[in-house]
Design brief:
Layout (H helix, E strand, L loop, with lengths): L1 H71 L11 H18 L2 E8 L3 E9 L2 E5 L3 E2 L2 H12 L5 E4 L11 E12 L2 E10 H11 L6 E5 L26 H5 L1 H9 L2 E6 L2 E8 L6 E3 L13 E7 L1 H52 L9 H18 L3 E8 L2 H8 L1 H16 L7 E4 L4 E6 L5 H15 L15 E8 L6 H22 L3
Parallel strand pairs: 5-11
Antiparallel strand pairs: 1-2, 1-7, 2-3, 2-4, 5-6, 6-7, 8-12, 9-10, 10-12, 13-15, 13-16, 14-15
Helix pairs in contact: 1-4, 1-7, 9-10
Length: about 525
């Protein structure tokens, strides 16, 4: 019984649990995707704000540099630079200015022919200056050429070349002064420590999972995203950039638009263009006229696939415990429902069994048998499928009860049903119509000969000795009658009457053949 109960609830449990688990997995996937989209959108919005703040910092820094250049280029001592004493005083003022500001590595005052009149150098906080005229390095001459071609008061912004000895990334700014030297006009050059600007920009993004990139118009790194890249300011001539090399399609769109968000299989780019020319700076490349586009920068926040994977893992870390707890609850609920359903089905089946099955012989009772006979006749009406009815009546059953007792009679009835059941198919039915009266429905049944063969088989098996009931000394004797649908009738009443008559005819023949 216990094994039967287990088998009864287990299939339902498996279906409920599997279906519920699948639905739960789909729900979790939907929740995961919604959270992923929401958090990516929030991350992108944060990066847009960070990039906008970085652009503002760049413009603010350049504005301060421009103000410094105007201050330095309009010092009153510049009117007396031909006087070596006044030139030394100017150098000290430039040195004090550099000491106070701390963001310039060099401040140089140059004559038009390249003579370096003043050279202020900041070595990690130690300020050194020279006022002895010396010939400038080759790198300054290109700036002097461009500055000389620019209108008075024009601002130049450029990068120092590889010949500069500073280990830091530098930006070089130049402006013509109002003073004149014996060799012509004078120009002021300042070397701004770009790492100071980069540190400020990086601080804005230090809590962001993205990588901060500042790239020039050629796509070279200006800030260092990791140790594998060199500073963009220090690149060799003709050196390819990581952006153009690793992300050519993304860079093509970034360089062609002012700003936006670009999602690619390689990551997400949030970018915006910074224009130093807005604050009055112009750039120049060798052999080219000054142009504001030379100094166009792209401020980029790059959300790598690794950063996206970390975001997804954080979402999974919150969803997995929920999924496991829900799965456990689903399993318990499925088990409870399945066990309850199985118990209810078991009770219903037991009640149905009591209502339809004869408790002594385990055959159908009279009411249930009549229903199944009507169903067999309905199949004939609908499908033309014939059936047969075999009526079985035990002979001398009263003598068994009187001689051996009711226990022997009950055993005889049970053995009768068992022997009849052994002679019919699983689809055929046996019912107990009365005390010692039984009937068999053969459905389908092709013809009378087939029904008669089954009846003979039943009669033969019933007569096999010995009887298993207490005190039985011989076989079970019975009389059988057969009725066929539709030959003998198409209603239950007609078939039962015909089979009953045939049975009584067989019983009469047996009595007549019995010796007197």
């Amino acid at each position: 019984m216990k094994a039967t109960r287990v088998k009864s609830w287990l299939p339902l449990f498996a279906k409920l649990f599997a279906g519920g688990a699948l639905l739960l997995a789909v729900v979790c996937l939907v929740i995961f995707e919604e959270r992923r989209r929401a958090q990516l959108s929030a991350l992108e919005n944060d990066e847009i704000s960070i990039v906008a703040a970085q652009v503002a910092v760049i413009n603010e820094s350049l504005h301060r540099i421009r103000a410094d250049l105007y201050i330095l280029s309009r010092q009153s001592e510049l009117a007396h630079i031909k006087d070596s004493t006044r030139l030394a005083e100017l150098a000290r003022e430039y040195a004090d200015f550099e000491r106070a500001v701390g963001v310039y590595e060099n401040i140089r005052l140059l004559a038009a022919d390249g003579t370096r009149l003043i050279d202020i150098h900041n070595e990690d906080g130690e300020i050194h200056y020279h006022v002895t005229p010396v010939h400038t390095r080759r790198g300054d001459h290109e700036d002097l050429r461009v500055l000389g071609a620019m209108a008075p008061g024009g601002l130049l912004m450029s990068r120092p070349g590889r010949d500069e000895s500073s280990p830091r990334p530098l930006l070089r700014f130049g402006i013509s002064t109002a003073a004149r030297h014996a060799n012509g006009n004078t120009y002021l050059l300042v070397f701004f420590r770009a790492d100071v600007l980069f540190d400020r920009l990086a601080q804005l993004a230090e809590r962001s999972p993205s990588t901060f990139i500042l790239a020039d118009r050629d796509g070279h790194w200006v800030s260092r995203p990791d140790a594998s890249f060199t500073w963009g300011f220090d690149r060799h001539e003709g050196e390819s950039s990581p952006l153009t090399r690793d992300y050519p399609k993304a860079w093509a769109e970034i360089s062609a638009t002012e700003g936006g968000t670009l999602r690619t299989p390689n990551g997400i780019f949030v970018y915006r263009t910074a224009h130093p020319a807005i604050t009055g700076f112009w750039g120049a490349e060798p052999g080219q006229a000054p142009s504001p586009e030379i100094n166009e920068w792209k401020v980029i926040s790059f959300i790598s696939p690794t950063a996206i994977a970390r975001l997804e893992n954080r979402i999974l870390e919150t969803l997995v415990p929920f999924f496991l707890a829900a799965l456990l609850s689903l399993g318990l609920a499925s088990w409870a429902f399945s066990a309850s359903w199985a118990a209810r089905q078991h009770r219903q089946n037991r009640l149905l069994h009591r209502a339809t099955i004869d408790p002594l012989t385990d055959a159908f009772n009279r009411a249930a048998f009549d229903e199944r006979l009507e169903a067999a006749l309905a199949r004939y009406e609908e499908l033309g499928e014939g059936c047969a009815l075999i009526f079985v009546d035990l002979d001398d059953f009263k003598a068994i009860n009187d001689t051996h007792g009711h226990d022997a009679g009950d055993a005889c009835l049970r053995e009768t049903v068992a022997r009849i059941r052994a002679c019919i198919r699983d689809a055929d039915l046996i019912g107990r119509l009365g005390g010692d009266e039984f009937a068999v429905i053969l459905s389908p049944c092709r013809n009378r000969a087939a029904a008669a063969a089954v009846a003979e088989k039943i009669l033969h098996r019933l007569t096999l000795p010995p009887g298993p009931f207490p005190g039985a000394a011989g076989p079970i004797r019975a009389s059988l009658g057969v009725a066929l649908c539709p030959e003998d009738g198409t209603s239950a009443e007609m078939l039962l009457r015909f089979a009953d008559q045939a049975m009584y005819g067989a019983k009469r023949d047996r009595r007549e053949r019995r010796p007197s």
